[in-house]
Amino acid sequence: MSRTVQRLRRRVLPNLRHLGGTRLRRCRCCGRLSLIVSLSPGEEVKRCLLCGANLRYELLAAELRKLYLGHLEVLELDPGSPLRGLLAGSRSYQRSYYAPGVEPGTPGPAGSRCEDITRLTFADASLDLIVSSDVLEHVPDLEAALAETARVLRPGGLHLFTVPPRERTRKRPPEEPEYHSDPLDPNGILAVWDIGPDAPAHFDRADLKLDIAAGPEGIDRRVVWRARKT
Fold first, then answer.
1. How far is CA 50 from CA 9, 53, 89, 90, 141, in A?
2. How far, in Å, CA of 105 to CA of 127, rounded?
3. Residue 184 has what pLDDT?
4. pLDDT category of residue 88 using cuts at 50, 70 and 90
């Protein structure tokens, strides 16, 4: 059975009852009038029919439009996100994926390359912007990931990111495994962290400060986090 059919049977068919939440409106990611097709009670599987964006990508797109992207060198930690049309207008735009056992810098699908957020292949102070959506909660050494963010960003540079909202920040205990869907792995990917509003108290550094740039919004109380290089 093909992966597409498996995904259809596992994720789409059981959620057809939520189609009543489908709406016609302008997508804040691609900017086009579109059907936002609903396959979930929350916003995670309410997606633009044209670009595939859900609420977290729409929130990121709204923040990105506030920046002068044409002057920025950008890394997105996603090989095929709905933001790629918007970010393609940057001065330089590199998309990345992560695969265990693959050497960082290895070329991947559609012009992307393998990168490990805890040991990026980019030079010091070589980027203006990093964008990631629901990535950092899967990184076991989150402190190392933020240290690398600080290393590769220029002063004033940003890492805009989303993570699933939680009430408080903690490293998840092994006896409470939680897996999230992963387009690169049909088995899903383990969530290592819960990240809540208290994240700055846990992860602020002398050279990197966290705050909430947008939100909360929607039933899922989604926010966009901003890590700024000082």
1. 22, 8, 19, 22, 36
2. 16
3. 63
4. very high
Candidate CATH numbers 3.40.50.150, 3.30.450.20, 3.40.50.460, 3.40.50.300; the one for domain 54-229: 3.40.50.150
- Cα 146 from chain centroid (whole Å): 15
Does 37 or 10 have the greater pLDDT score?
37
CA–CA dist 105, 97 (Å, integer): 10
Beta-bridge partners for 159: 130, 227
- Tell the burial category of 46 from Cβ atoms under 10 Å away from its Cβ (0-12, 13-18, 19+): buried
Q: Looking at the chain, which residues constitute the CATH 3.40.50.150 domain(s)?
A: 54-229
User: Is 162 buried (19+), middle (13-18) or exposed (0-12) by CB count in 10 A?
Assistant: buried
- Residue 68: predicted pLDDT: 96
How far is the C-alpha of 171 from the C-alpha of 12, rounded, in Å? 31
Number of helices and strands in the chain (H, E) = 5, 14
Chain centroid to CA 32: 21
pLDDT (tens digit, 9 = 90+) per residue, 118-169? 999 999 999 999 999 999 999 999 999 999 999 999 999 999 999 999 999 9
